[in-house]
Amino acid sequence: MPKTPKKINREQLVTKVAEKLGLRVYRTGWPDLLIYDPDEEKTVCVEVKSGQDNLTGKQLAMQAALQRAGMKVYTLFVGEANCADERNRVDLALRYYFKMFIE
After folding, report:
1. How many distinct structural domains can be found in the chain?
2. Is residue 9 part of a domain?
3. Residue 97 lies in a domain
4. Which domain, by its residues, includes 61?
5. Terminal Cα distance for the chain, rounded
6. What is residue 16's predicted lDDT score, i.e. its pLDDT?
7. Closest CA to 59 of 71, 69, 74, 44
8. Secondary structure letter of residue 32 according to DSSP
9. Residue 51 resides in a domain
């Protein structure tokens, strides 16, 4: 009976090759949202946190890597989103970020 070929994990293979080439591979810590403005053809990354939550070390490392690559990265602290005041605050914050980001 012929031997069944070992299944290759393609992500692990690509990761190993990239690392052998001296490249860094980030698999965790990505921001929650990638928001694109089609009118301005601009993109911003947003990590959404509750008022009690903090960024992890992996998230901080990812944000730093994205910023080095020229991406705008923000952390938006959001409380209970079921109240109108909090929805208005988030709306204002996103408008502010995009205004800064587009200019």
Report:
1. 1
2. no
3. yes
4. 29-102
5. 66
6. 92
7. 74
8. S
9. yes
